[in-house]
Specification:
Rossmann fold, 2 domains, nine-stranded mixed β-sheet, six-stranded parallel β-sheet, globular
Amino acid sequence: MTGPLRIAFLGCGFITRVHSYHLRRLPGEFVASYASRDCAKADACSRQYGGVRSYGDYRSALDDPAVDAVVIAMPPRLHLEWTLQALAAGKHVLVEKPAFLRAEDYARATDARDRAGRVVIVGENDHYKPLATTLRRLVVDGIIGDLVFAHFTTIVRRLKAADDWRNDESMAGGDAFFEEGIHWLHIASSLGPRIIDIHGYQPTPSREGPDRRAKSMMVAFRYENGGVGALYYSREVPSLFRGLRLSKLFGRRGIITFESNGLFVVAHGEGLPRVVWPGMKDIRGYRAMYRDFASAIREGRHPEMSLERAMEDHRLMERVYATVGSPEPVATR
């Protein structure tokens, strides 16, 4: 394939606008179109983000030979249906995360991908963001030696409106941790050593106010190297400056302290502490993710965030919920 990758967004909600903002910063590499069940919304997105086409339904985008790939940007309950339809239509697929609701859904999508000979990438942009790549590099380079403790904090008071589809767990696939905490579970499990045991601890949910979901979760886990860790996730607890928070990785030779959004990393190894600036240009990793998608298509390979990699995260998530309320952790193997 030569020329820009021609992408159609299926869905014109908030996340499509986030993706489109970053795609516009990759001029000449991608051409976007927009499909919605509301033709006016598709037209508005196309005008705002420089799209070349708009469609009043999703099927029209799949039937258009001028579309190379689609972005499944709708609630998770609909992801499998439209991923399968897109692959049957011969399109490459970027499916937002969480990609699917059940492990067997990943298997169906993988089979359809292989039959179609197309590329499917799961939209785990956090895998590609400078913070994640910096942490992986520092751990692999042995800056802090063997990992002993990992402490991840992602806490902010950010409530959803009453009419937000995320309040409907049948649409979202689960509560706030399932729908959004999956990004942090991926970071925790992608540092190098695999997570082999995991347990979820959920505070008693508050159902007050318009955001009725369970919005907090604490996860404890063990890595294959013997290290242990915890992830504190909440979208109902206030944080400094509405989002500033610190996380740490503790090793036998030092400590890595990092701002959880990716503003800075401080490595306390041998010698003086070292400040690392991961970078602000693509702080969320969207541009790196799209470039991996395009190069995987052109090179005929799996992207870094393949269905297989995303399935590993989903299995961890299943075990988190299987253990909430039970006294013992459940092994992942």
